[in-house]
Amino acid sequence: MTDDNLTRFARSELEAAGWFKPDSSYDGMLGPATMRLMEVFAAEGHSGMSAAIALALFSKVAAFEPLHPLTGADDEWNEVDTGVFQNRRCSHVFKDSEGPYDIEGRIFREPSGACYTSHESRVPVTFPYSPKREYVDVEASRG
User: Fold this and answer.
1) What's the pTM?
2) Of 17, 31, 104, 115, which is most buried, counting CB atoms within 10 Å of its CB?
């Protein structure tokens, strides 16, 4: 186990937030999982700029987001229904007879911070395309 300032800080923060407790989310598994990732990251010896770049790269690929623009080339698509194609590199980009679109192009955000998508989240795409999300503040939904 790496014992440096970064891993000590991470452990302290995770403990203070209760992430190691058996009754936390996912039965306390996320605290130890995060620490394993932190130990690998700390062992890489990054500093300043390289740490920021590595974090940005990891964050994107771990979230299944592309690192460079989608091209729209034929080999980027899987047919998921008759005439409906899903992008292999970005699962929220589709195309059909009306053209390509991103089903997460518009995210609706309530005052509480809760976010959701709907049929109104769909935005047209032009290639090359780097996925982006527009956050639209809305009134609280009634429930």
Assistant:
1) 0.79
2) 31
